[in-house]
Write a structure and sequence with these properties.
The chain is of the alpha+beta class. 37% of the residues lie in helices and 9% in strands.
């Protein structure tokens, strides 16, 4: 984990004292502002002796604080600090970076935050690009996975220069099934099921989003995590008992439970499982029977042809999945099942029209298609929603300027500068957000 380096008043004084006679008249206030910008954006990793710091100081002295902030955000120090921290946070809906580690998922995110030699930065493609990023830490060795970097390599790495894209993503692919036991071999994930950084994991314990979402359970955490991390919305923000339908709820949700249609002092089960983030149609069908995470099998598993015993849409207990699928309420009236649902769509379809009717899509600023098949198409559409850019701006504000006073007009200005699906097109670059937030008048 990387922590902010604090540059003390003593360092500032030493820096001012070291200036030549020609520099002796330097504006102390401008130097303080430059130090603040550099430290906030790069975690204190940019030395005052760096030519970039001198360029920042010139920008500040000329009144161009945003230009100075942009220099810091475009440096390798930003990639090693704030971009990497944002990537760590996106491995779970709690945005907890404490347990973050360099892995294929974080390398992918850093590449999309700062760009590489072969591709510009792109916020919109975070959830859909069918790429894996390996690392060449010294510029000449063979590419390695980010999780293999040594402490020394992490300290000195220039992420933008070191990241090497490889087309496609891989997982442990199921080749044989014996009841709930599977045999796997490393192989490709079909592009239809690739979810950008969300489906990247190369080992059994890498604290990736895939590890968070696909371990055990039923993949509800996976699809809920996708929405929560991308949009900042919670389960209750999008629940709807009125718009939810029983056939939209997963098979393992007990329809004969008294709380299914009407909550007893709490939200009805149907509100979330039928009308919310856990609905089969709101992304659950794109992941439920497709992915698993099993440390004993090497980590992330892709399931080309799920059998009843390994279908996660039939519940978390493999021994009960056949009963859930049969769902015979006459013979087993206490069965934990939903007879109106056959389970996840085998074509992996998704349809957000219910959210259009309830106003959720308006809240998200949804501009992409309302339906499709597979996680990849859902991720591509998600990347077009304006809420993605608004929420990322809110996250940057919390990291860079938590005490700032940003008006609705300020936020609209940032959105216009970064959102790429309007005319004129924005930059699609998180560094634009960082520079505009850090240079805001309330952050000085």
């Amino acid at each position: 984990m990387t922590y902010l380096k604090v540059v003390s008043i003593g360092v500032l004084c030493s820096y001012l004292f070291s200036l030549s006679n020609a520099q002796a008249a330097v504006d102390a206030a401008a130097t303080v502002t430059t130090l603040r910008l550099a430290n906030t954006i790069t975690g204190g990793y940019m030395p005052t002796s760096s030519p970039l710091f001198a360029l920042m100081l010139e920008k500040v002295q000329s009144g161009d604080r945003r230009g100075a902030a942009q220099i810091a955000a475009s440096s390798k120090y930003f990639a090693s600090y704030l971009a990497r921290r944002l990537a760590f946070q996106m491995q779970n809906p709690s945005f907890d970076a404490v347990n973050g580690m360099d892995n294929d998922s974080t390398a992918f995110l850093i590449a999309h935050f700062v760009g590489t030699k072969s591709a510009p930065p792109s916020i919109s493609k975070i959830w859909s690009d069918n790429l894996t990023y390996l690392v060449i830490p010294d510029g000449s060795s063979s590419p390695i996975h980010a999780a293999n970097l040594t402490a020394t390599q992490k300290k000195n790495i220039d992420w933008a220069a070191a990241l090497s894209p490889v087309t496609g993503q891989t997982a442990n692919v199921v080749t044989a099934v014996n009841n709930a036991n599977v045999t796997t071999a490393r192989g490709p994930i079909p592009e239809k099921h690739v979810g950008g950084y969300m489906t990247l994991s190369d080992r059994a314990s890498d604290n990736s989003f895939a590890m968070y979402g696909a371990t055990a359970g039923t993949n509800l955490r996976m699809v809920e995590g996708i929405w929560q991390i991308a949009t900042g919305l919670t389960l209750v923000d999008v629940e709807s008992a009125s718009a939810g339908r029983a056939y939209m709820a997963p098979r393992f949700i007990p329809e004969n439970d008294p709380n299914f249609f009407h909550g007893q002092g709490q939200t009805a089960c149907l509100a979330c499982h039928g009308g919310g983030m856990s609905s089969l149609q709101h992304g659950y069908s794109t992941v439920a029977d497709v992915f698993n995470f099993d440390a004993a099998k090497g980590g992330l598993i892709y399931v080309p042809m799920p059998t009843t015993a390994i279908r996660k849409s039939l519940g978390s207990d493999p021994s009960l999945r056949a009963t859930v699928l049969a769902c015979d309420l006459v013979k087993t009236p206490k069965a934990v099942c939903n007879p109106d649902s056959a389970g996840a769509d085998p074509n992996h379809g998704w349809d957000l029209n219910v959210w259009r009717l309830t106003g959720v899509l308006k809240t998200m600023g949804w501009t992409g298609p309302l339906s499709g098949q597979g996680l990849n198409s859902l991720g591509a559409a998600l990347g077009r929603a304006t809420i993605v850019y608004k929420f990322l701006t809110e996250r940057v504000i919390r990291e860079v300027c938590p005490m700032g006073a940003f008006t609705a007009t300020d936020l609209d200005s940032i959105l216009a500068a970064v959102y790429p699906y309007e005319v004129p097109a924005g930059t699609d670059d998180v560094r634009t957000i960082v520079a505009m937030v850090a240079s805001h008048a309330s952050c000085q």
